[in-house]
Automatic annotation (TrEMBL):
A single GO BP: regulation of DNA-templated transcription
Highest rank taxon of the organism: Bacteria
Keywords: Methyltransferase, RNA-binding, S-adenosyl-L-methionine, Transferase
PANTHER family: NOL1_NOP2_SUN FAMILY PROTEIN _ ANTITERMINATION NUSB DOMAIN-CONTAINING PROTEIN, NOP2 YEAST -RELATED NOL1/NOP2/FMU SUN DOMAIN-CONTAINING
Biological source species: Pleomorphomonas carboxyditropha
GO molecular function: RNA binding; RNA methyltransferase activity
Compositional bias of kind Gly residues: 8-18
Positions annotated as active site in the UniProt record: C407 (nucleophile)
Protein name as annotated: SAM-dependent MTase RsmB/NOP-type domain-containing protein
Binding residues annotated for S-adenosyl-L-methionine, in chain numbering: C292, A293, A294, P295, G296, G297, K298, D313, D354
PROSITE patterns for the chain: SAM_MT_RSMB_NOP
Pfam family, one: NusB
UniProt lineage: Bacteria, Pseudomonadati, Pseudomonadota, Alphaproteobacteria, Hyphomicrobiales
Length: 479
């Protein structure tokens, strides 16, 4: 059975449970249609509504093409998010995580009960439904509360309010049928955009592609890069030491609360993201430019290893974040705000180009990417990477090293870039990477001597602690 979603009062001809929200349908005060009671005072907002309202704004922002990190960084929603108490902030984060990570399953579940697609011009309607369905399908939240709060949120948005009946009807149907729906769904196929699945199958084979997609469905744990003594930090924080020296913690959420944050003993960085700096070898006393540096994970590595680092980024706002991060860590770098496709600020022993990319290797950490990315982004970013590499070559002294890396799984943003350098006879030679210098991690070194990590790599006994972000890295020497 499907719900009429024309926005007509009462949801049209739908059957039982498809009518408009009724006062007795949810928590006290949830279904008053936003009308103040006699005496002019509004009823108290239902418990937990603010966390859901923030989650709706975040998901709606992502649906409009914004990046989740950017939405959480500045602006009205970020401020609202910060004002939540820590428990509600955790709840909002978890809801958004499920709504984005499982967006395909949610769309499929909801679509089963709609007579036609939801309109695009109904304000936050789609986000309200996604956020509510995420709770019903995947979270330990009472279904009736998720439905009631969803209807309340739709009612609070003028453009979505005419669809309150649809929200109520669809969410109830999803709740009633959730066991069947989940049993029938191919979660991997639904949550991974088909164009990405096709690309990954072509590059890595169908089984590996499914494995990558399966890893993307799981919220990853936290990796820390420590300034020193990884074993000591692993013991102190209850984590495990990974082969590269990262400390992996079985937690997610607010990092400021973790021991050692204030003293600046560590920073958050996926283990795979540390590898490009390792490829530079001994950087102590070397003049190194980190060309796309913010928020500074790799700059911090270079500075901690004693390099004379210039950290450059085109974004002033992101560079400010890098500055704050270095300050907390007690590390130093020369900061430059500039466009690296144009900047020429000297000659360096080493250039690290951790280029902007589609970031399809980090969907498990940034599930908004699976919602917002388009095939055309690959070509656009690959073109920018080409210009950045060409400029990076001009900054290198003869014999100097360039490490080019991206957190993309796409060929155009990895090996194809190096192939092009050979074709144009760029004055660079590949210096192949060996597993020995990468802590014996053979599975991440390609036959061509590049680094290729996948979310499905680093399988550990404890499945929750497994996985790596997908990175490509190549090392080249200036002739
Ligand atoms: C993948 S992130 C870098 C992550 C960083 N290397 C780290 O380890 O924390 C890419 C960065 O490139 C910057 N960027 C994009 N285009 C740029 C350009 N033309 N010149 C310099 N930086 C640029 C972005 O602002 C962003 O901070």
């Amino acid at each position: 059975m499907t719900a009429d979603n024309s926005g007509r009062k009462g949801g049209g001809k739908a059957g039982k449970g498809f009518g408009p929200a009724r006062p007795h349908d949810g928590p006290k005060g949830a279904f008053k249609g936003g009308r103040p009671p006699q005496g002019g005072r509004r009823p108290p907002r239902p418990q937990g509504i603010e966390a859901r309202a923030v989650a709706v704004d975040l998901v709606a922002g992502v649906q409009k093409g914004r990046l989740l990190d950017a939405l959480l960084d500045t602006g009205a929603t970020a401020e609202r998010y910060q004002r939540l108490d820590p428990r509600d902030r955790g709840l909002a984060r978890a809801i958004v995580g499920y709504a984005l990570r499982r967006h395909g399953q949610i769309d499929d579940a909801v679509g089963r009960f709609l007579t036609r697609p939801l309109p695009d011009d109904a304000g936050t309607l789609k986000a309200v439904i996604a956020v509510s369905a995420a709770q019903i399908l995947f979270m330990d939240v009472a279904d009736h509360a998720a439905v009631a709060l969803g209807v309340e949120l739709a009612g609070g948005d003028k453009a979505a309010a005419p669809f309150k009946g649809v929200v109520n009807a669809v969410l109830r149907r999803v709740s009633e049928n959730k066991a069947t729906i989940l049993a029938e769904q191919d979660a991997i196929a639904l949550n991974t955009p088909a164009w990405l699945m096709e690309r990954w199958s072509a590059s890595f084979g169908a089984d590996v592609a499914r494995d990558i997609a399966a890893m993307n469905a799981i919220e990853p744990t936290l990796d820390l890069t420590v300034k020193s003594d990884p074993d000591g930090w692993a013991a102190r924080l209850g984590g495990i030491r990974l082969p590269n020296g990262s400390v992996r913690l079985p937690v997610t959420g607010a990092v400021e609360k973790i021991d050692g944050y204030e003293e600046g003993g560590w920073w958050v960085q996926d283990a795979a993201a540390t590898l490009p700096v390792h490829l530079l070898g001994d950087v102590k006393g070397k003049k190194v430019v980190d060309l796309c540096a913010a928020p500074g994970g790799k700059t911090a590595q270079l500075a901690a290893l004693g390099a004379d680092v210039t950290a450059l980024d085109v974004s002033f706002h992101r560079l400010q974040r890098l500055e704050r991060n270095l300050y907390r860590l007690g590390l130093k770098a020369n900061l430059v705000k500039a466009d690296a496709t144009e900047w020429l600020g000297g000659t360096f022993d080493m250039v690290l180009l951790d280029a902007p990319c589609t970031a399809t290797g980090t969907l498990r950490r940034h599930p908004d990417g699976a919602v917002g990315k388009k095939p055309a982004d690959v070509a656009t970013l690959a073109a920018l990477q080409r210009r950045l590499i060409d400029q990076a070559i001009r900054m290198l002294r003869p014999g100097g090293l360039l490490v080019f890396s991206t957190c993309s799984l796409e060929q155009e943003e990895g090996p194809d870039q190096i192939r092009r350098l050979r074709l144009i006879e760029a004055p660079l030679d590949v210096v192949p990477v060996t597993a020995d210098e990468l802590f014996g991690m053979q599975e991440i070194v390609t036959p061509d001597g590049f680094v290729r990590t996948l979310p499905s790599h680093l399988k550990l006994e404890d499945a929750r602690l497994s996985g790596l972000d997908g990175f490509f890295a190549a090392r080249l020497r200036r002739q």
